[in-house]
Amino acid sequence: MPPSQVGERPTPESEDQLKELVLKLPYVKAVGGGSKPALSRDATISMAAIRGVVDYLPEEYTISVRAGTPVQEVMATLEEHGQFLPFDPPLSSAGATIGGTVAAGVSGPGRFRYGGVRDFLLGVTFMSGDGRIIHGGGKVVKNAAGFDIPKLMVGGLGAWGLITELTFKVFPRAMETLTAEIETASWADACRLGHELALAPLDLLCLELAPPNKICLRIGGQVSSLQERSERMRRSYGGDSWKQIQPDALMWQDAADFAWAGDTNALVRMAINPKQMELAEATVTQWSRADEVQRRYGVGGNVLWMSGPDEVLGESVPLLVTVLNRPALAIRGTWDVARIGGRPPNVLAERLHSVFDPQRRFVPPKSQMA
Predict the structure, then answer these.
(1) pLDDT for 144 beyond 60
(2) Residue 100: pLDDT band with limits 50, 70, 90
(3) Phi, psi dihedral angles at 127 (to 5 degrees)
(4) How many CA atoms are closer than 13 Å to the CA of 48, on its beta-carbon side?
(5) Residue-level pLDDT at 142
(6) Residue range 187-197: mean pLDDT, rounded
(7) How many CA atoms lie within 13 Å of 42's alpha carbon, on the beta-carbon side?
(8) Residue 82: which region, alpha, beta or left (left: phi > 0; alpha: psi -120 to 50)?
(9) CB within 8 A of 188, min separation 6: which ones?
(10) What number is the average pLDDT over the span 67-78?
(11) Are the beta carbons of 163 and 183 closer than 8 angstroms?
(12) Listed residue (288, 312, 307) closest to 211, CA to CA
């Protein structure tokens, strides 16, 4: 039975249909929910029909799902048992799929406390460029056999194969959470306080900074202890500028969905060192249209997110990449290539291609790599 169509792209509903397409198409790239269009603009296959929960064991804290499953569906299934994906998968409200989240290697605010998507991925099944089904990892937490293929797929952008199924470990949700905002006298003060908070034994769930001078932090635990912890932190770090927010679930969901960025703006992620936050801001504020560029420094300053008009970021982000000596990844917007700053070819990548994609079906045509 031939695959169906979503728009102009074939939409396989089974591994057999997927294999038929992989062996037929000269160039193979998948799209899930289309929430990260800069990464899927040249997609040739839709994975939207390869979806659904395969296996969920709440008592074992593991879940296996097909790659095209929307993140919102996974979260709703876990919520029924008081569990969640602690890395806060981004862009769920925009239709992000679990496979696309892994392929892009993106995580939300919860990464500060719990770790990123790679830290929760236990197993992966994917199709190679010659139509083989390859399994890596397993479906249990204690699994250390073989090459760590699941980690290879995180952030790989589909370079090694088409992900069809994923297994994650999950956590019980905190009983209650509380958020506080702190405003400092300057961005330099915000950076210094943010660094101090990140290193302090406060068990923060999330820590984000927003120019020109704001810090947002989140704590969780038993209801009886939250207010006491909040008051101690206010006296030590916030003083009169401490603003408590509760309930706070919607605020952090908006943060994971980049509500601050706007739906039509380009969006870029850059992994940085927290010590580079001041230099990054000093550079951005010198741009001629800096007032049109929104910034958020997530994960305690380890990730810089930028949003703005295509033409502004298209001209300015490569300059920032050079200044900070850090590559960037385009999530939304119009870009010639998604990896800004790129990465040089290496021997390992060539060996991986020879094993998983000998016909180079997952390598973009040269015209798209210029």
Answers:
(1) no
(2) very high
(3) -105, 130
(4) 17
(5) 62
(6) 97
(7) 19
(8) left
(9) 278
(10) 98
(11) no
(12) 307
| C-beta neighbour count of 117 within 10 angstroms | 25
What rounded mean pLDDT belongs to the chain?
A: 93
CA angle 63, 114, 71 (to 5 degrees): 40
Query: Residue with structure tokens 């908070």?
Result: 197
Q: How many CB atoms lie within 10 A of CB 133?
A: 14
- At 143 the pLDDT is 57
Tokens of 153: 């797929």
User: What is the model's pLDDT at position 5?
Assistant: 59
Is the model more confident about 267 or about 3?
A: 267
pLDDT at res. 177: 95
DSSP state of 217: E
User: CA-to-CA distance for 337 and 365, rounded, in angstroms?
Assistant: 12
Task: Give the CA count within 13 Å in the CB-facing half-sphere of 180.
Answer: 23
105-110 long-range CB contacts below 8 Å, 24 or more apart?
Answer: 105/154, 105/155, 105/156, 106/36, 106/269, 106/331, 107/299, 108/252, 108/255, 108/256, 108/298, 109/205, 109/206, 109/208, 109/218, 109/252, 109/255, 109/256, 109/298, 109/299, 110/86, 110/205, 110/206
Give me 241's structure tokens: 């500028």
CA 284 to chain centre: 23
- In terms of phi and psi (left: phi > 0; alpha: psi -120 to 50; beta: otherwise), the region of 161 is left
Whole-number Å distance between alpha carbons of 51 and 125: 13
Domains and CATH numbers, the chain: 4-172 (3.30.465.10), 176-256 (3.30.70.920), 259-335 (3.30.70.250)
Angstrom CA distances, 104 to 5, 121, 311, stand at: 24, 14, 23
pLDDT tier, 74 (very low <50, low <70, confident <90, very high otherwise): very high
Query: What tokens appear for 103 in the block?
Result: 């392929």
State the DSSP H helix or E strand holding residue 180, giving kind and residue range, or none if neither: strand 176-183
What is the CB neighbour count within 10 angstroms for residue 356? 21
Report residue 369's pLDDT band, with 50, 70 and 90 as the boundaries.
Answer: very low
Token readout for 53 is 């929960």
Q: How far is CA 357 from CA 7, 162, 211, 351, 368, in A?
A: 27, 11, 44, 10, 18
For residue 91, pLDDT beyond 50: yes
Tally the residues of the chain: 370
Residue 3 has pLDDT above 70, yes or no: no
Place of tokens 């605010």: 109
